[in-house]
Write a structure and sequence with these properties.
This protein has helices at residues 5-9, 71-78, and strands spanning 12-19, 46-53, 58-64. By secondary structure, the protein is α+β, with helices and mostly antiparallel strands.
């Protein structure tokens, strides 16, 4: 079998995941009528990234289990 087109073109990639679950007791966003802080963790929250690089261009796809991010952070990630 021959080399894959990705290997032949020099495409490299990597992926990572990190748990970003806040500690129990944190104030949470998402429900306007919420009056209490978190009392348990049902599912962990994660930040994930896939980075692809062909030697000339590097691109990343970032996924965050969040409602939103501050605009300053979004601008830094987009740069």
């Amino acid at each position: 079998m021959g080399e894959s087109s990705a290997a032949a073109s020099g495409l490299r990639g990597g992926a990572a995941r990190v748990c970003i679950t806040p500690p129990v007791g944190c104030a949470l966003a998402g429900y306007g009528a919420r009056e209490k802080h978190s009392c348990a963790v049902e599912d962990d929250l994660y930040a994930r990234v896939l980075v692809l690089d062909d030697g000339a261009t590097r691109s990343a796809i970032v996924s965050l289990d969040l409602i939103g991010v501050p605009s300053a952070l979004a601008r830094r990630l987009a740069a």
